[in-house]
Amino acid sequence: MTAPTIDTVALESGVRSYSRNWPAVFSRAVGSTVWDENGTPYLDFFAGAGALNYGHNHPRLKEVVLDYFASDQLVHSLDMFTTARGDFLQTFSEMILKPRGLDHRVAFPGPGGANAVEAALKLARKVTGRESIVNFTNAFHGMTLGALSVTGNSLKRGGAGIPLVHATPMPYDDYFDGDVPDFMYFERMLGDSGSGLNHPAAVIVEAVQGEGGINAARAEWLRALADLCKRYDILLILDDIQMGCGRTGGFFSFEEAGIVPDIICLSKSISGYGMPMALTLVRPELDIWEPGEHNGTFRGFSPAFATAAEAIRTFWADDTLERSTQAKGAHVESRFNQLVAKYPEHELIGKGRGLARGLQFGTAELAGQVCAAAYERGLLMETSGPEDEVMKILPPLTLTDDELNRGLRIIDESVDAVLGRS
């Protein structure tokens, strides 16, 4: 007998989002391409919202995970010692941390990016004895209550259902279009005993704001922020959840600025294969947790450790991927600038670093229409920004030049179709 057809859409909560813009039922994926159940291919410039920097089902990483399951190694291990955990820690230390002069300790806070942020905020408050956190306009740090309190988007904040407190937003780089000197307001508030600003435990920042609209902070702005934190005894938390693991070129998005954050949050592409994994990296002197003081049942997903270690060995033994990402990013920037020049009346703005790129439109409607037109032509990309006014691309870093150019042609065609010029 044929099983009755179930309306699975009706079974799901209305909170789902991506499937509303991309109603296809996807069934398989390889590299930079996903196919729906009818065999229709789509070029993926979304890459799991940045969780698939090395593409879908990379053959070497797939081999590792299949071997891992086939050999009956531990899948669930909490924070017990396992061979996979040890291999990851050693590989991460030797190939990522030490070459960059970082001596941070690694905490596994849970399966997702919000877990990494919550652990960072909690530890900063424990270390300093202070409650207040400074965040930045248009920031996004996650959907749990602590992470939401340092997130800027009003729609996401509104879903909390309670007041979000103990956080103070400050202007991100170029928030005032260059009209106000960097940190003039923030530093004046810190130094004025009458300002009412509680001395912050930490500042949390993204070197490139992804969900906030692909806003890239200048290296000198990040350096000035790090210096300000040091002078006022404030911990610096760098959220590298979406922009880490090579998205902007270097493994960490802050490398270009030459700063050393006190705490670093990683997730998304750290497992290398799209499996849940998150890290909170802390300077040794800040590692004052009591045993079990911060924990979680799924903080040790061992298959993710295995693919994460292999991804580092495969892609970070030299600077090949970094140079490729920077070159491809420069190519995207050039193509986006051509669109800006083609439609001066729409005042488009090209944004981003590396292969985190955006094209800002005057309205969310236009950006959404361009993404919809691209979907019709077989390209997946999303919008971001406070009003969803930015067309955002996060393609796999491993995509070929042909795939990149094919996607950019689709974007050109989609922009032309929406803005009315062929």
From TrEMBL:
Known pathway: Amine and polyamine biosynthesis; ectoine biosynthesis; L-ectoine from L-aspartate 4-semialdehyde: step 1/3
Domain of life: Bacteria
Cofactor names: pyridoxal 5'-phosphate
EC numbers for this chain: 2.6.1.76
Pfam families (UniProt xref): Aminotran_3
Gene Ontology MF, one: pyridoxal phosphate binding
InterPro entries membership: Aminotrans_3 (IPR005814), Aminotrans_3_PPA_site (IPR049704), Dat (IPR004637), Ectoine_EctB (IPR012773), PyrdxlP-dep_Trfase (IPR015424), PyrdxlP-dep_Trfase_major (IPR015421), PyrdxlP-dep_Trfase_small (IPR015422)
The entry's keywords: Aminotransferase, Pyridoxal phosphate, Transferase
GO biological process: ectoine biosynthetic process
Family, similarity comment: Belongs to the class-III pyridoxal-phosphate-dependent aminotransferase family.
Name of the protein: Diaminobutyrate--2-oxoglutarate transaminase
